[in-house]
Design brief:
Bound molecules: nicotinamide-adenine-dinucleotide
CATH superfamily of the largest domain: Aldehyde Dehydrogenase, Chain A, domain 2
Number of helices: 13
Helix content: 25-40%
Largest sheet: 7 strands, mixed
CATH architecture of the largest domain: 3-Layer(aba) Sandwich
Distance between the termini: 25 Å
Strand content: 15-25%
Radius of gyration: 26 Å
């Protein structure tokens, strides 16, 4: 938070040049339902640390956590400075008519566009933490059981309602054949023979999401799982094969416990498939050959990347978390959260005297003055460019 001194050029050697970290002012944080504590409190902590006032709008979908936040936060925080607003889409629309100094939104990109449109009316800067279809490439040269364990864990945690869960696996038919028994084994190991009885396997958050995800089972062919129970909003950990790229399961973010496997001829075709689509929030590649993992890393664009594992990347607070393209913009976690809610104010404090030094920049101009000015503007330690 301290003022940060910066390098100076010859012109400003005797001055004080620094970056002051200031709050934006009043920040609106809108959370998604799937990790209702984390997605509201992590930005809240960063916004407070950066010195902002906050209006927190948790998701009304995870209604118990919404109530908990609304009741508990005022017990610990000054409610004149940090307010919790409980609101559905309509009321949030009204809330957005107000002018905020910063908006931090987590949710899907359809709603993201509504939020951005509202923010544009006031030119309010924002962070958009959105979703998308995060691909998971599996190579033929792989430890299939380890890969399957890590994919199953990342996919089925929170019943697939995780923004960075591997949305689909992409591999060759031969790889699919080797991976399938390992996926089956991992699902059984983690959730038992009847995952419905497992205390470690979740449910869809509400009926709407249950109906949406269950409808995706009509695509392709179920290879593992596929059982559902509407009363319990239960959808078994499911793996699907023979899915077509035009089917809904390959068009929309799954956000549920269904893992489609899309087959391609080779790595090149997999990369081409991924690159023909919107840039995802996360991308994963599994291979015992580092060159393959690095090839995927280098050849595609995504918000974040993890080689030989899935969701774990998000546990490292030293890494920025955020999307690119349709998966969002801006970043947070760890120090990046503080930076997100901070205005970096570039400041220069000059002394009133030493006017002789300044004379070179005043008209009338000549070539000699120009030469002095150019060399006086350089910051030697950072190289010779005066523009960057
Ligand atoms: P959502 O967009 O439906 O809702 C998010 C928030 O927006 C909620 O607080 C909701 O009340 C509000 N909202 C909904 N409709 C609105 C409207 N018309 N006007 C104003 N506000 C409105 O998202 P969700 O279903 O809660 O969450 C799932 C999505 O969020 C997925 O796409 C997922 O990938 C994404 N997500 C992203 C991250 C990330 O960090 N990038 C994290 C979690 C979830």
């Amino acid at each position: 938070m301290k003022d940060e001194c910066v390098d100076k050029n010859l012109f400003t050697q005797l001055d004080h040049a620094f970056i002051r970290k200031e709050p934006f002012g009043v920040v609106l944080i809108i959370g998604a339902f799937n990790y209702p504590i984390q997605l509201t409190l992590i930005p809240l902590v960063g916004a407070i640390a950066a010195g902002n006032c906050v209006i927190l709008k948790p998701s009304e979908v995870s209604s118990h956590t919404e109530r908990l936040l609304a009741e508990a936060l005022p017990c610990y925080l000054d409610s004149e400075t940090f307010a919790v607003v409980t609101a559905g889409p309509e009321e949030t629309g009204k809330l957005l008519e107000n002018k905020f100094d910063y908006i931090f939104f987590t949710g899907n990109n359809r709603v993201g566009k509504i939020i951005m449109t509202a923010a544009a009316k006031h030119l309010t800067p924002l962070t958009m933490e959105l979703g998308g279809k995060s691909p998971c490439y599996v190579d033929h040269y792989c430890n299939f059981q380890n890969a399957a364990n890590r994919i199953v864990w990342g996919k089925f945690i929170n019943a697939g309602q995780t923004c960075i869960s591997p949305d689909y696996v992409i591999c060759t038919v031969e790889t699919q054949e080797k991976l399938m028994p390992c996926l089956r084994h991992a699902i059984r190991e983690f959730y038992g023979t009847d995952p419905k009885e497992s205390p470690d396997f979740g449910r869809m958050v509400n009926d709407k999401h249950f109906q949406r995800v269950r409808a995706l089972l009509k695509c392709g062919r179920v290879a593992i799982g596929g059982e559902t129970d509407e009363r319990d909003r239960y959808i078994a950990p499911t793996v699907m094969v023979d899915v077509k790229e035009w089917e809904p399961i390959m068009q929309e973010e799954v956000f549920g416990p269904i893992l489609p496997i899309f087959t391609v001829k080779d790595l090149e075709e997999a990369i081409q498939f991924i690159n023909c689509r919107e840039r995802p929030l996360a991308a994963y590649a599994f291979s015992c050959d580092d060159k393959v993992v690095n090839c995927v890393l280098d050849s595609i664009s995504s918000g974040g990347f993890c080689g030989n594992d899935t969701v774990t990347r998000a546990t490292l607070i030293s890494l920025p978390f955020g999307g690119i393209g349709l998966s969002g913009f801006g970043k947070y976690h760890g120090k990046f959260t503080f930076d997100t809610f901070t205005h970096f104010r570039g400041c220069l404090l000059r002394c009133m005297g030493l006017e002789a030094i300044n004379k070179v920049r005043y008209p009338p101009f000549d070539d000699k003055k120009l030469g002095i000015v150019v060399s006086a503007l350089e910051i030697k330690r950072r190289g010779m460019c005066t523009l960057l």
